[in-house]
Design brief:
With about 140 residues, the chain is mostly beta strands. It contains 1 helix and 12 strands; from the N terminus they run ββββββββββββα. The longest helix has 6 residues.
Length: about 140
């Protein structure tokens, strides 16, 4: 599966173990506050000796077509008009699978529209690409926008 990350832990401690996979470094302070951890992605409780605990995490990526209001230095508010799923290019062994190619159309030099993604497309490793027709806009118009 594309954009999938797998973490495998083999318990070789000689006893059952509890494994927790965190989305952020846990902060432990004071006394025992119970079993609630808001930053735990997944737990593998009582993993027997010699057993394997596996966590798979996958990410979804999207091409977004819209406008923003605000200064990027202070953050951005986005008004989304359309988004389509995108697959990043990746390498699996000696195989390279290219990422999505997504058509971008500019309408009246003001708004944009996204077409259906082509998979695999021509996006490089860890990337997807937006393609435009040669008459959509000039390089200078893209810089000025």
């Amino acid at each position: 599966m594309v954009n999938t990350y797998k973490i495998t832990v083999k318990n070789q401690t000689g006893a059952p173990q509890n494994y927790s996979f965190f989305s952020a470094t846990p902060i432990v302070s004071g006394g025992n506050s119970g079993d609630v951890w808001s930053n735990v992605l997944k737990t593998a409780p009582q993993t027997p000796n010699g057993a394997v605990a596996t966590l798979e995490v996958w990410s979804n990526y999207y091409a977004v077509c819209g406008s923003f209001d605000g200064d990027p230095n202070q953050g951005v508010r986005i008004s989304t008009s359309k988004c389509v799923p995108a697959t990043l290019g990746y390498k699996s062994g000696d195989n390279i699978v290219m990422g999505s190619s997504i058509p971008l159309k500019v309408i009246n030099k003001e708004t944009c529209d996204l077409g259906a993604p082509k998979n695999p497309g021509a996006g490089k490793i860890e990337c997807f690409e937006l393609t435009t027709a040669t008459n959509e806009f000039t390089y200078q118009e893209a810089i000025n926008s």
